[in-house]
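Fold it.
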Amino acid sequence: MRQLAKHSAGDKPYGALTVVRELPFVEFIELLEFSHLRFDLPKKGSTSTLVGSQEWRRQIEDDAAQPGSVYVCTTVDALHHAVLAPENAELKIDMPSQSRVRLRTVSRQRGRKAPLPCVRVDLQALIRRVLVPASAPAHLFELVRHVVMTRLWVEVARVSSPRG
């Protein structure tokens, strides 16, 4: 891996930036059970070699959270180390804006059957913390905490409400 440059928003290296991804509960359980992240498929008719992409955010937008969603927290460095590119594909991570980090898988060969739109991950290396939206019911928080603690030993917390 190349040396990561300092990020202009502060004195933290780019790779140390914390990023989050909102996942529906079912997709979160899939991640824990099968150690893979789903990608958003490229637009239909796309002729590029893009297999799929995924957006991670620098901050949580709890007001926009879907019911039953969970936030997975990690760092850019952890994404580099934990996400495993599929065979015949290359993983690319970039920062298109100050608030987003984009993870993409690009096929190395045109004309071949595209790999599945998901990537395998090392859960221990990827997940630093799990957050449940402040608006989620208590039983969902307890279920998420129980499931995470049986598979990983990471913090599970509620997102602090901005109206506190």
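The helical segments are 25-34, 76-82, 123-126, 138-151.
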